[in-house]
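F.,

This is the one I mentioned.
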């Protein structure tokens, strides 16, 4: 049967997207840049509550340019949560800066702010130049910025918010992406809003936005011929993909509603199951990108991998929480301040199908499969 497999977070596209992309194609603006890019930037800036937005080819590119613009380079340090997708740490490596990893709060998976404060004091004493702290809004739940921002301000370190997963999320009513000197959004295929591939740098800082825009277009000087005084990148988003993004933006609130409704259903189902909790449960501003359970095997009598195996046999995708960066072979030897929380979440967490494109039949299959698994315990 076609589309039998249930995916974790499949793209949610249809006739609105088709109409927007065809219109962009017919307009003749196929090259990178064009009116769709300009409009998409304005619309995302409005949504993220920032003055400026720079559309780029990926969230990773946005992280890279933001870090470089904030002064990350060899001899500097960038503080990154150990529990994140590898792109956050890779972007630091592109700049030549040294990443330092910090463990997380076990309740939310977001960076442990107390530990971060200790680390920043330590780095200050050892006279390290810290270019940025990069908090990640884990699975679409904002970091506690009421705690984090004063800690970074006290250390005079700029914050770059990795809100790649958090478009549409809020913290105390303020949109994700707007909390640091700059924020990063991703429109990768599995994110809430997709351009098939793309990202955005959002900021109130006009100079930062201008500098990132310049670096993203091969650092070309404003002259009739090609003139370059420094190394740039080819990181701009194409006009066609921006049209796709604009169509998705029209549908964003509806897509968020579907993800939130799914989270509610999971919450109800697992409320009665001993030893199981939802990661970041009770965050009213979460965009519910990926609903993730955390299973205490002693209390539950089963472990996350048992459920993953049961679902896989029924062609239903699930996935462990990110493997922490300090456990990745590529970052062996990197300095990390740890409590063990991220590793425990990696070992006991499971992300469940959360996509807004899931139909009632597919959702029925997922809940039927989980119900059967629980009944058999
Ligand atoms: C997806 C993601 C990125 C990277 O975004 P791309 O658009 O895929 O390059 C960065 N950070 C986090 C936390 C992500 O989930």
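My design for it:
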């Amino acid at each position: 049967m076609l589309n039998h497999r249930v995916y974790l977070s499949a793209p949610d596209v249809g006739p609105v997207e088709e109409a927007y992309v065809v219109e962009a194609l017919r307009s003749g603006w196929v090259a990178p840049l064009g009116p769709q890019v300009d409009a998409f930037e304005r619309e995302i800036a409005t949504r993220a509550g920032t003055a400026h937005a720079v559309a780029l080819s990926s969230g990773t590119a946005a992280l890279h340019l933001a870090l470089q613009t904030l002064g990350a380079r060899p001899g500097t340090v960038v503080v990154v949560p150990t529990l994140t997708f590898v792109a956050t740490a890779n972007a630091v490596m592109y700049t030549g800066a040294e990443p330092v990893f910090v463990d997380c709060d076990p309740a939310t998976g977001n960076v442990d702010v107390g530990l971060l404060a200790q680390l920043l004091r330590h780095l200050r004493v050892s006279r390290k130049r810290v270019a940025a702290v990069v908090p990640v809004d884990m699975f679409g739940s904002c970091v506690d910025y009421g705690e984090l921002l004063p800690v970074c301000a006290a250390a005079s370190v700029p914050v770059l918010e990795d809100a790649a997963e958090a478009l549409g999320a809020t913290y105390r009513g303020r949109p994700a992406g707007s909390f640091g000197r700059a924020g990063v959004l991703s429109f990768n295929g599995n994110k809430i809003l997709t351009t098939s591939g793309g990202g955005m740098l959002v900021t109130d800082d006009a100079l930062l936005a201008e500098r990132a825009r310049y670096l993203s277009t091969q650092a070309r000087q404003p002259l009739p011929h090609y003139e370059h005084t420094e190394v740039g990148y080819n990181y701009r988003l194409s006009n066609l993909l921006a049209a796709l993004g604009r169509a998705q933006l029209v549908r964003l609130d509806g897509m968020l509603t579907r993800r939130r409704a799914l989270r509610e259903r999971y919450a109800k189902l697992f409320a009665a199951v001993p030893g199981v909790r939802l990661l970041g449960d009770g965050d009213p501003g979460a965009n519910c990108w990926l609903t993730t359970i955390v299973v205490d095997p002693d209390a539950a009598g089963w472990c996350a991998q048992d459920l993953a195996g049961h679902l896989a046999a029924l062609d239903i995708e699930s996935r462990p929480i990110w493997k922490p960066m300090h456990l990745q072979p590529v970052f062996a030897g990197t300095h990390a301040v740890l409590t063990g929380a991220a590793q425990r979440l990696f070992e006991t967490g499971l992300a469940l199908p959360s996509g807004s494109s899931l139909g009632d039949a597919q959702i029925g299959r997922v809940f039927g499969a989980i119900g059967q698994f629980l009944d058999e315990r």
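The longest helix spans residues 252-271.

Talk soon.
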